[in-house]
Design goal:
CATH architecture of the largest domain: Up-down Bundle
Largest sheet: 5 strands, mixed, barrel
Oligomer: single chain
Distance between the termini: 41 Å
Shape: elongated
Order of helices and strands: EEEEEHHHEEEHHH
Number of domains: 2
CATH topology of the largest domain: de novo design (two linked rop proteins)
Strand content: 15-25%
Number of strands: 8
Number of helices: 6
Length: about 240
C-alpha cells in the first residue's frame, strides 16, 4: 500500500545484506516482492534497546514499512513473519551465495515477483534438502530466465533440431548448443543428456551435476562481467559444489 508521503506499508521482503551506517544505524540491501531490490537505512537499529535488533535477519521473511523516494529509503517498521527455518552450515553458505548473486545481477527498483517467490522457495529447499548443489543449479537457471537470459536447452543452435542424449555439444554464450565436431573450442562441452536433464531440473546423475555446474559457472561469469562472487569461491573450496 502506498500513501502520498511515498510510504510503503507491510511489504514482504528479505534482507540480502546489511552493514553499519554512521554510529547507530544499519544500511540494508533489501529484496522486496513488489518493489524489487532497494537500499533502506534502519536508523538506530544498532542501539542496544532498538526494537529492530534481532529482527533484521537475512534469510527470514519480513514485513517492512519504509518511506522516501530517493536512492536510499528510510525504514519505519519491521516485523518478522516466521515460517522459514534458520539456515545452518553449508546451507547457510549457499544462502549467502544466492544473496550475492541477486545483489550483483538485480538492478535496483526492478520488481521480479516470480523470482522473489522462487528465492523464497529455494531458501526453504536449502533448509530441508541435502542436495544443495542441485538446489543452486535450479535457482541459477530460473534466475537467468527471469532476468531475460533464458537457456536454450532443447534444440541445437542454428538448425533448431532437437538435442539428442547421446550427442556431444559445445554450449556457447548467446548462441546455445552447437554440435561438437572437434573444430570448436569456445564454450563448455556438455552431453545432450545434460541439456535435457537441466531442462527438467533433474541433477541426480553425476555427469549432469558436474557438467551443469561448469555450464552455469560460464554463463554467470559472462553476465557478471568479471565480478567475483566471494561466497562461490568459499563454497567451492569447502564443499566442491
Amino acid at each position: 500500500m502506498t500513501t502520498r508521503q511515498n510510504r510503503q506499508q507491510d511489504e514482504l521482503a528479505f534482507v540480502l545484506h546489511s552493514h553499519p551506517f554512521r554510529e547507530t544505524s544499519l544500511l540494508l540491501d533489501v529484496y522486496s516482492q513488489r518493489h524489487g531490490r532497494l537500499a533502506i537505512v534502519a536508523r538506530g537499529a544498532r542501539r542496544p534497546r532498538s526494537a529492530l535488533r534481532g529482527v533484521l535477519m537475512s534469510f527470514q521473511p519480513l514485513l517492512l514499512s519504509w518511506f522516501g523516494k530517493g536512492e536510499v529509503r528510510t525504514l519505519h517498521a519491521a516485523e518478522w513473519q516466521g515460517g522459514q527455518p534458520y539456515l545452518q552450515g553449508t546451507a547457510l553458505m549457499c544462502g549467502f551465495y544466492l544473496n550475492e548473486l541477486l545483489i550483483n545481477l538485480l538492478a535496483r527498483d526492478d520488481a521480479h515477483a516470480q523470482l522473489f517467490d522462487y528465492y523464497r522457495a529455494t531458501l526453504y529447499r536449502l533448509a530441508h534438502e541435502a542436495d544443495h548443489a542441485a538446489t543452486l543449479r535450479c535457482f541459477e537457471k530460473h534466475m537467468l530466465q527471469e532476468l531475460g537470459y533464458a537457456l536454450e536447452l532443447g534444440v541445437e543452435a542454428g538448425s533448431g533440431l532437437p538435442v539428442t542424449a547421446e550427442a556431444s555439444y559445445r554450449y556457447v554464450v548467446e548462441q546455445g548448443a552447437i554440435p561438437d565436431r572437434g573444430d570448436l573450442h569456445a564454450g563448455v562441452k556438455v552431453l545432450g543428456k545434460t541439456l535435457m536433464a537441466m531442462a527438467e531440473d533433474d541433477y541426480s546423475d553425476a555427469t549432469v551435476a558436474q557438467q551443469s555446474k561448469q555450464l552455469m559457472r560460464m554463463l554467470l561469469n559472462h553476465h557478471l562481467g568479471g565480478r567475483t562472487l566471494h561466497t562461490r569461491e568459499l563454497i567451492k573450496d569447502l564443499q566442491k559444489l
